[in-house]
């Protein structure tokens, strides 16, 4: 069950968003409960009863008394995990909201185009699995979807993300294979597993990832890599 809060002082607009969210969720067979609040004070009262009442909050920036940015600041002191999606007709206010770990912004003038993407991305995020790996610098907590690939180098497993390469204390690559084969990763050669979702293109005996990096593919693994790539492409 996904718990969603909508906070907007425009009742008509809030009801419209609620109906659209219900339509999208029903189409994807996702069970959810949607709660509506006409003021920031009403939304904050929900936090008086529970530590984390919502997985996702759609929050209007321009509201009387407490605006969306003020509400977000109070929420973040109580809850670091809820995904905040700001609704705004004042695009110049967007930059002020970055410090609240904002997940998405939706322009009210583009609601029909941007609402669906924001909801689908947020659902993917909250259902994403967080894994903990031991490194020489302590425990690394990372979402599976943030991992580009695993690589076995000099008897250590490395984790590559878009920004960093981490050296873990894992000594057996089979431990990675056993755990992540069912989580959207595919072996491209002995000692390297790639997140299928980040394969951008396939060459003769290599692949190119979304970050532009090229990796070799074993001749014996190529057919399976191609099948997985086509399957993901069709799904997307």
From TrEMBL:
InterPro entries: CheY-like_superfamily (IPR011006), LytR-like (IPR046947), LytTR_DNA-bd_dom (IPR007492), Sig_transdc_resp-reg_receiver (IPR001789). GO terms for molecular function: DNA binding; phosphorelay response regulator activity. Residues 3-123 form the Response regulatory domain. Keywords: Phosphoprotein. Residues 131-231 form the HTH LytTR-type domain. It comes from the Bacteria. The keyword Plastid does not apply. Transmembrane segments: none annotated. The modification 4-aspartylphosphate is found at residue 60. PANTHER family: STAGE 0 SPORULATION PROTEIN A HOMOLOG, TRANSCRIPTIONAL REGULATOR-RELATED. This is Two component transcriptional regulator, LytTR family. It comes from Tepidimicrobium xylanilyticum.
């Amino acid at each position: 069950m996904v718990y969603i809060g909508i906070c907007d002082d425009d009742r008509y607009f809030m009801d419209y968003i609620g109906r659209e969210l219900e339509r999208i969720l029903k189409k994807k067979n996702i069970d959810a409960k949607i709660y509506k609040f006409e003021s920031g004070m009403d939304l904050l009262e929900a936090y008086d009863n529970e530590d984390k009442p919502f997985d996702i909050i759609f929050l209007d920036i321009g509201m009387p008394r407490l605006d969306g940015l003020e509400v977000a600041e109070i929420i973040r002191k109580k809850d670091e995990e809820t995904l905040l999606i700001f609704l705004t007709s004042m695009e110049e206010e967007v930059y002020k909201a970055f410090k609240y770990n904002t997940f998405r912004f939706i322009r009210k003038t583009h609601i029909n185009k941007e609402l669906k993407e924001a909801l689908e991305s947020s659902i993917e995020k909250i259902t994403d699995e967080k894994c903990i790996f031991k490194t020489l610098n302590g425990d690394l907590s990372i979402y599976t979807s943030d991992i580009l690939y695993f690589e076995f180098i000099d008897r250590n497993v490395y984790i590559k993300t878009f920004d960093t390469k981490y050296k873990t204390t894992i000594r057996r690559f089979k431990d990675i294979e056993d755990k992540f084969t069912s989580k959207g990763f595919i072996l491209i050669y002995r000692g390297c597993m790639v997140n299928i979702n980040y394969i951008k293109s396939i060459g003769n005996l290599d692949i190119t990832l979304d970050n532009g990096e090229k990796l070799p593919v074993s001749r014996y693994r190529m057919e399976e890599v191609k099948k997985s790539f086509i399957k993901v492409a069709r799904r997307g």
